[in-house]
Amino acid sequence: MQSKEIANKIRKYTAQWTIRANGGYLAQACGTAEILATLFNDVLDLGKSSGPMMPAEFIGVPKPGAPGTRGETWLGAGPDLLVISPAHYATAMYSALVATGRMDEEALIKCSKDGQLLEMIGAEHSPGMVVSSGSLATALSVCVGRAIARKKLNKPGFIWVLLSDGELQEGSTWEALQLANAMKLSNLKIVIDNNGMQVDGQMNNVMPIGAIEEKLKAFGCEVYDIDGNNLEEINLACKSALRDEKLSVILARTKPWTGFSFLWDRWENNKLHFIRLTELEKEILSKELAVL
Prior knowledge:
Layout: H1 3-21, H2 26-43, E1 81-84, H3 90-99, H4 107-110, H5 138-153, E2 159-164, H6 171-182, E3 188-194, E4 197-198, E5 201-202, H7 203-206, H8 212-218, E6 222-227, H9 231-243, E7 248-253, H10 263-268, H11 279-290
Parallel strand pairs: 1-2, 2-3, 3-7, 6-7
Antiparallel strand pairs: 4-5
């Protein structure tokens, strides 16, 4: 399957979820569809999934003596690992798992109810999710620790972590970057969904973070500033990052309104973070889904 087709499926499945649930994090999936498609299809060496095509019911969070379900089992045994940092991007991850044959499409319906594993805010027991990071900026610090461990153990493979640019408003993100650079973690690769929005609206209207690329470079990062909805640019940046001997960050400028026409109006009105569909939007979305 081509990456473009996978990206369209990610949008399609997330849009269908949003209609069924009368709400969801649709814009995050629309903005990162090409990124996830490229990572899964062209970049990552994940290995075969050992997670069931139809996830079981939730039996509790993993803990000593009761491992429960671990989301990373759907990502395979490596050598690579993909970590989604913003927990509200979970629906995009579930859709990517279905689009790439790691989970049954029916799971998006049957396993997204109370007592099931497919939650809108993902955690470490949710399919494809590795870290419980509802508190944003948690996952990068965890990934730095795991990358250090891999380096000391001479374990092959790369840890790829997808951040949202809103997490750059958190001090712990910069602490993690500083440590990653100090430890020369060339086995850690970072992609930032630079969509310019956070929960309260457009970031420039809430808390501007200034020149991101320059700041990242000042922290010692090799930065690739790309169009995050252009499959070719994403692919080239990822392949280049794999050759870097220093900490790599792909700053992917994404358009979270990509795919469905009504999303642009929500962007302009700061109502794009969580989408509760109006009747007119449901009608528009259903029509546009039919031709996607």
